[in-house]
Design goal:
single chain
Length: 91
């Protein structure tokens, strides 16, 4: 989400700069869970979509999905955290 929010998007510039194009991508990371002493992998799904209307807007949505191994007070899954934000050009 942070990388998509930081991407340059300025349709009024010459030439037009659009590093925040409509896209979907997946990234797998290791979660930092020191207390459990287990390696937990999380899959991050990030999508960027254009919101139709008179004002140019893009929606950035990030879903982080992970599961925990059994044996502890919290196990199973999958668990999901989702963050959604809107972004205007040159923000």
């Amino acid at each position: 989400m942070e990388q998509a929010r930081a991407a340059k998007w300025d349709p009024l510039a010459w030439p037009v700069v659009d590093d925040l194009q409509d896209t979907n991508f997946v990234q797998i990371n290791t979660l930092d869970i020191a207390a459990s002493r287990q390696i937990v992998y999380a899959t991050n799904y990030v999508s960027v979509t254009t919101i139709p209307g008179p004002v140019p807007m893009r929606q950035i949505r990030a879903d982080c999905v992970w599961s925990l191994a059994g044996g502890g007070p919290v196990s199973g899954g999958p668990f999901t955290n989702t963050a959604v934000t809107l972004r205007a050009p040159d923000q």
